[in-house]
Amino acid sequence: MTTTPRSPRLLVLSTALLAVIGVALLGMPHGQQPPAPAASLPSHATTNPSPAAPITPTTDAPAVGTPASTSAASTPAAGQSALPPHGEGTAGDAAIQKALEAAWPPDLPSGDARELLTAGRELLRADATAIGRAHWPAVFRASRQGLAPAFATARFRIQAAIARRDGSPDKAVVHLVWAGTDRGGTFTDGRITDCHFTRTTKKGASTWTPQPRT
Hints:
By secondary structure, the chain is an alpha+beta fold. It has four helices and four strands. It has helices spanning 8-26, 93-103, 110-129, 142-145; strands at 157-165, 171-181, 187-202, 205-210. Strands 1-2-3-4 form a four-stranded antiparallel β-sheet. A hairpin with a 2-residue loop joins strand 3 (187-202) and strand 4 (205-210). The radius of gyration is 18 Å and the shape is flat. The N and C termini lie close together (8 Å).
């Protein structure tokens, strides 16, 4: 899960975040400087650092999983809160969650969303810290389960997460924003990861199955 290119959906989310930076800067009073960005971690294959800037729903926002070319950022709605600055800690997590929910309105039944969010959080933790990889043999095959974790468990934190359809009723994606300290001791928050699932049915019961990265 740590060697593949970034998914188009990560680029969609990052593009939406970056697009509103310009809007925020244009509306800033003369002479006021934006906060200096926090230092970023070296690139991690499953993540994208997220800028500390307002986020806004896309105009005619497509369902998650549609091509990035169909997304276009609109101006921030009046009163919409900005994302917290990097390093804000747990106090800023609620604002990130609200921004994600505003950018991608819910489109899944509540039961499916809960199942997907639980699985997505566990998969991300297993990928980043190696905790629980054995629970997902289809994703972390035997040759990968013993790989050293890229992030420590002590400061690993999922800041926000949403589950949405991924182009069809039987496909879904979990968008996660998280923070962690890498093996070099560098802490970074606002990282972005996507976990993809398909719905499978066995003996009349349906469940969401995670898809291994190819």
